[in-house]
C-alpha cells in the first residue's frame, strides 16, 4: 500500500494551483497568446506602453519608422552614391584621356601675382585635409562592410572601423568651423553675374578657341563654392545632430539626419573629384596658386583676365 509522507506539502501545492485558476481573467488568457497576429498588429502601429524610464521614447517598443530609414538608406542612397562616385571618376578619366591637361596658350613671363593670402591657403588646406579624412572614414563606414571586412579580416576590420568612427566624430566639428570661416571669407567673390553666363556658354573654355573672360572666380568655381556652401551646411548641421546626441533628439530625428548626412556627403564627394581634377592635373599652373599663393601673369591673363586687369590697374595707380 502506497503511503504519502508529506500530505501537508501536497495539499499546499494543490491549493495554490486551484487558487491560480480561480483568479485567472480573460485578459490573462490573451497574454498567453501574445505571439499572435493581433499582438504584432499593435506592435507595428508603434503603440506605447508603461515603463520606469522617463526618456522621450521610453514606452515605445518598436520604432516603425526604422524600416523606412533602412529602405531609403540601403535601396536608394547607398547604391546611388556608388554610381555617382564611380561615374564621376570614369568620366574624368575618359575626359583626361581624350583632352589631356589644359595647357597655357603662351609661355610663362616669370612675373608673379599674389592670388591667395596665407590665411586663405591655410584655411583651404585645413578644410581639404579634414574633408579627405571625413570622406574616407565615411565611405568606409557606409561601404566598407561589402569588401574591406573580408579583405582585412574581422579583427583588423573592427579596429579600422572603430578608428574611422572616432575620426569622423571628433574631426567633424573642426570641419564645420573651417568651412564656415571659408564661406564667410570667400562669399564676396562668388556672386554670379553676366560674365559667368558667357563662361558657361563656352563650356569654361572647352567650346571655341578663345578662353572665356572671368573675374577673381570663374563660373565653375562659383558653382563649387555654392554647392559646398548649401550642401555643406546641410551635411554639417545633420552631422552635429548625429554627433551630439545629448539634446533630446528622438530616433526619427536621428534617422532623418542620417539620411541627409549620407546623401549630402556623397554629392560633395562626387563633385569634389571634379574640383580636385581641375585644380591639379586638369589645368596647368592651377595648383601653384594654392601652394605658394602666387600665379604667373600668363596664367592670370588666360584664366582670370578681368581679375588680372583689375590687379594691374591697381598696381599702375599705386
UniProtKB/TrEMBL annotation:
Cofactor: heme
GO molecular function, one term: formate dehydrogenase (quinone) activity
Gene Ontology CC terms: formate dehydrogenase complex; plasma membrane
Chief location of this protein within or outside the cell: membrane
PANTHER family: FORMATE DEHYDROGENASE GAMMA SUBUNIT, FORMATE DEHYDROGENASE, NITRATE-INDUCIBLE, CYTOCHROME B556 FDN SUBUNIT
Cytochrome b561 bacterial/Ni-hydrogenase domain segment(s): 115-293
Protein's cellular compartments: Cell membrane
GO terms of biological process kind: anaerobic respiration; formate oxidation; respiratory electron transport chain
NCBIfam families: formate-DH-gamm (TIGR01583)
Transmembrane segments: 80-99, 125-147, 167-187, 223-244, 256-278
Entry keyword set: Cell membrane, Electron transport, Heme, Iron, Membrane, Metal-binding, Signal, Transmembrane, Transmembrane helix, Transport
Leader peptide range in chain numbering: 1-24
Protein name: Formate dehydrogenase, cytochrome b556 subunit
Membrane topology of this protein: Multi-pass membrane protein
InterPro entries: Cyt_b561_bac/Ni-Hgenase, Di-haem_cyt_TM, FDH_cytochrome_b556_subunit, Formate_DH_gsu
Protein family (similarity comment): Belongs to the formate dehydrogenase gamma subunit family.
Amino acid at each position: 500500500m502506497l503511503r504519502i509522507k508529506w500530505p501537508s506539502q501536497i495539499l499546499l501545492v494543490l491549493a495554490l494551483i486551484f487558487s491560480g485558476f480561480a483568479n485567472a481573467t480573460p485578459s490573462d488568457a490573451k497574454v498567453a497568446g501574445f505571439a499572435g497576429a493581433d499582438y504584432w498588429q499593435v506592435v507595428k502601429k508603434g503603440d506605447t506602453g508603461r515603463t520606469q524610464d522617463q526618456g522621450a521614447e521610453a514606452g515605445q517598443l518598436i520604432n516603425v519608422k526604422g524600416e523606412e530609414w533602412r529602405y531609403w538608406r540601403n535601396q536608394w542612397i547607398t547604391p546611388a552614391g556608388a554610381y555617382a562616385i564611380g561615374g564621376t571618376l570614369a568620366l574624368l578619366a575618359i575626359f583626361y584621356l581624350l583632352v589631356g591637361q589644359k595647357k597655357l596658350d603662351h609661355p610663362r613671363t616669370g612675373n608673379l601675382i599674389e592670388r591667395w593670402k596665407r590665411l586663405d591657403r591655410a584655411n583651404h588646406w585645413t578644410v581639404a585635409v579634414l574633408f579627405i579624412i571625413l570622406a574616407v572614414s565615411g565611405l568606409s563606414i557606409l561601404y566598407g562592410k561589402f569588401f574591406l571586412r573580408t579583405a582585412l579580416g574581422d579583427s583588423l576590420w573592427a579596429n579600422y572601423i572603430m578608428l574611422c568612427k572616432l575620426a569622423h566624430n571628433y574631426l567633424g566639428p573642426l570641419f564645420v568651423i573651417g568651412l564656415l570661416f571659408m564661406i564667410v571669407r570667400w562669399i564676396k567673390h562668388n556672386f554670379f553675374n553676366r560674365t559667368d553666363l558667357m563662361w558657361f556658354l563656352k563650356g569654361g573654355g572647352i567650346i571655341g578657341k578663345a578662353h572665356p573672360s572671368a573675374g577673381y572666380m570663374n563660373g565653375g568655381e562659383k558653382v563649387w563654392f555654392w554647392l559646398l556652401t548649401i550642401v555643406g551646411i546641410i551635411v554639417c548641421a545633420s552631422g552635429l545632430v548625429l554627433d551630439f546626441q545629448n539634446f533630446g533628439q528622438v530616433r526619427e530625428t536621428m534617422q532623418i539626419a542620417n539620411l541627409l548626412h549620407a546623401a549630402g556627403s556623397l554629392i560633395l564627394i562626387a563633385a569634389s573629384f571634379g574640383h580636385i581634377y581641375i585644380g591639379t592635373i586638369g589645368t596647368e599652373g592651377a595648383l601653384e596658386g594654392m601652394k605658394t599663393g602666387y600665379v604667373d601673369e600668363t596664367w592670370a591673363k588666360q584664366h582670370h583676365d578681368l581679375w588680372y586687369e583689375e590687379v594691374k590697374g591697381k598696381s599702375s595707380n599705386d
